[in-house]
Structures are given as structure tokens and as C-alpha cells.
């Protein structure tokens, strides 16, 4: 009993320390000047087999169809298509995902790569380890270098990485458009509330 309690307490301390580390080391938020960012990009977030398999077939088919069509349309007009994928690397996250989701999203998982239903070739790929895509400095640098100030957002999961990235973009002064039919959610009721909050903060919806 004492051993179990000790392990539980050790786990809690580890999680608290990890959370504090992330808090202290998160990227500094620097607001952009929209007038200096006339360009647009399409984001396709976490559309990896390990994650898309959790959504129903009808929703996936509709989302993939729209994202593929939108990606080709944007690229024809010179708009960058940026693909972002998530990989769990923290020890506690990998243990949790192995215990609860068969290792989905963990390094080495056969389903870590993009879902085969994506038919386009992205202009740029970034790998993140946190929900917010802005946790990747190279992603923010790319947007800066290409003078991108408007983001069309698609992908999954609506109430996690989509929401976090949208909030990260709004906090930095980006204009964002949520491509609603191209966003997958496991909880539509929750997404409706989160989407409304994003709209109140200045997001647009398509």
C-alpha cells in the first residue's frame, strides 16, 4: 500500500514538474503587424492515421474531400499549404498513450504518418509535441519569412490542437478562418462552445 501511494505521489510530482517546465519554457508571444503580413496559408493539423481513425467514416470522408480540394485550390493561387503533425515524446505522455490508446501518436507508431486519404503534397511540414502549433519556433519563423498573416485552419482534434493553435494565432494578431467542414471533432457539442468563443475573439468561419 505504501509503495502504491509512493508511486502515485511520485507521478503527481513528475506531472507538476513537467507542467511547470512547459510553462516556463513556452515561446514568448510576439504580436505581428497585419499590414506587413499580406499572405495566406492553409493549415492541415494532425491528420494522421493514429488520430483520424477515432472519427466516424462519414465525417472523415467529408473532411478529407474538402481539405484535398481546398489544398489544391489554394496551391493553384500561390497560397502555401502547411501540414502539421503531432508526435508524443514526453515519457509520461508516451506511457499514457500506450496504456490508453495502444501507443497512438507515439514515436515509432505505424500510424504516426499522414492519413493516406490526403492526396496533396504540402509545401511545408512541421512536427509538434504540444497542442499549439506555435510551440514550434520553425513554424512561426516560416510564417514570418513568408509574410503570412491569415491562416485557414483545418484538421483535428477540434477541442484540442485546433483550438490551441487557433488561440495561439489570435493571441499573436493573426487573422484566422476556421474551415468548419474540414475540422474533425469527437465532441461536437463541446466544439460548438469552443468555436463560439473563438468567434468572439475575432475568428471567422467558412
Provide structural commentary.
The protein is of the alpha/beta class and 206 residues long. It has a single domain, classed as Rossmann fold (3-Layer(aba) Sandwich). It is 46% helix and 18% strand. A 6-stranded parallel β-sheet has the order 3-2-1-4-5-6, sandwiched between helices. β4 (148-155), α6 (158-171) and β5 form a beta-alpha-beta unit. α6 (158-171) packs parallel to α7. The longest helix has 24 residues, at 2-25. Residues 5-11 have low confidence and may be disordered.
| Tally of domains | 1
Order of helices and strands: HEHHEHEHEHEHE
| Gyration radius over CA | 18 Å
Stated plainly, the CATH topology is called: Rossmann fold
Strand content: 15-25%
* Strand order of the biggest β-sheet: 3-2-1-4-5-6
User: So what's the overall shape?
Assistant: globular
- How many beta-strand elements? 6
Protein name: Nicotinamidase-related amidase
GO molecular function, one term: hydrolase activity
Keywords: Hydrolase
Domain Isochorismatase-like: 40-203
Task: Sum this structure up briefly.
The chain is of the alpha/beta class and 206 residues long.
Keywords for this structure?
Nicotinamidase-related amidase; Rossmann fold; 18% strand; 7 helices; Isochorismatase-like_hydrls; globular; six-stranded parallel beta sheet; 206 residues; Isochorismatase-like_dom; alpha/beta; Isochorismatase-like_sf
Amino acid at each position: 500500500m505504501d509503495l502504491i501511494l509512493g508511486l502515485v505521489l511520485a507521478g503527481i510530482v513528475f506531472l507538476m514538474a513537467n507542467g511547470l517546465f512547459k510553462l516556463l519554457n513556452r515561446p514568448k508571444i510576439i504580436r505581428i503587424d497585419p499590414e506587413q503580413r499580406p499572405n495566406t496559408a492553409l493549415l492541415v493539423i494532425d491528420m494522421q492515421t493514429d488520430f483520424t481513425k477515432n472519427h466516424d467514416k462519414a465525417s472523415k470522408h467529408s473532411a478529407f474531400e474538402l481539405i484535398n480540394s481546398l489544398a489544391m485550390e489554394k496551391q493553384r493561387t500561390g497560397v502555401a499549404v502547411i501540414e502539421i503533425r503531432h508526435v508524443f515524446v514526453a515519457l509520461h505522455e508516451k506511457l499514457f498513450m500506450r496504456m490508453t490508446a495502444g501507443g497512438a501518436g507515439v514515436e515509432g507508431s505505424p500510424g504516426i504518418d499522414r492519413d493516406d486519404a490526403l492526396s496533396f503534397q504540402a509545401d511545408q511540414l512541421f512536427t509538434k509535441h504540444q497542442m499549439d502549433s506555435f510551440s514550434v519556433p520553425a513554424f512561426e519563423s516560416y510564417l514570418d519569412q513568408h509574410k503570412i498573416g491569415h491562416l485557414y485552419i483545418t484538421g483535428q482534434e477540434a477541442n484540442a490542437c485546433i483550438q490551441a493553435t487557433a488561440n495561439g494565432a489570435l493571441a499573436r494578431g493573426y487573422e484566422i478562418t476556421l474551415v468548419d467542414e474540414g475540422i474533425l471533432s469527437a465532441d461536437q457539442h463541446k466544439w460548438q462552445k469552443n468555436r463560439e468563443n473563438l468567434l468572439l475573439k475575432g475568428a471567422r468561419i467558412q
